[in-house]
Design brief:
single chain; 180 residues; activator; transcription regulation; Ada_DNA_repair_Zn-bd; four-stranded mixed sheet; alpha+beta; metal-binding
Length: 180
Amino acid sequence: MQERYWQAIVANDAAYDGTFYYAVATTGIFCRPSCKSRLPKREHVRIFHHQQAAMEASFRPCKRCRPDGIRLPDEAWVAEMKAHIEEHFAEPLSLATLSDHFYASTYHLQRTFKRVAGVTPLMYIQEVRLAAAKKLLITTDMPVQVIGSQVGMANAAHFATLFQKKTGLTPTEFRQQPMH
């Protein structure tokens, strides 16, 4: 493999998109040079000048960078984003991390998500985190600050403030409610 191809892969250089595709023998996947997926070992990389050649060599297109140019319908794309948020809500999630993961600009991701889901990605993340916090408040005796951290909100004061703003109750008051 030519050094310039490897350097383009290492740098996620979008200037090389369409010039070549790289496939990873251990995963069976091929990507654009700009793909933000984890850097493969150099010895596992094969270079193709056409996506058809990569597919003929039994590699499948990456679901992240979509080198085949096939985009999901917006509803399916947003469903994938929601599933990702629901699985990773306790991790640091931002519009930037979502746009990197789903290979889209922050503007396009935000606009599409809001149009399809009716809320912004941040609002959805907050909804998922608050639902998880409510469940923990009801089912455990964990301290409120620990629950905040467990659901992805390291700042206990911010967690308590957001919880109260969204539910009308502090986390402690919510926990003390007789019926949930």
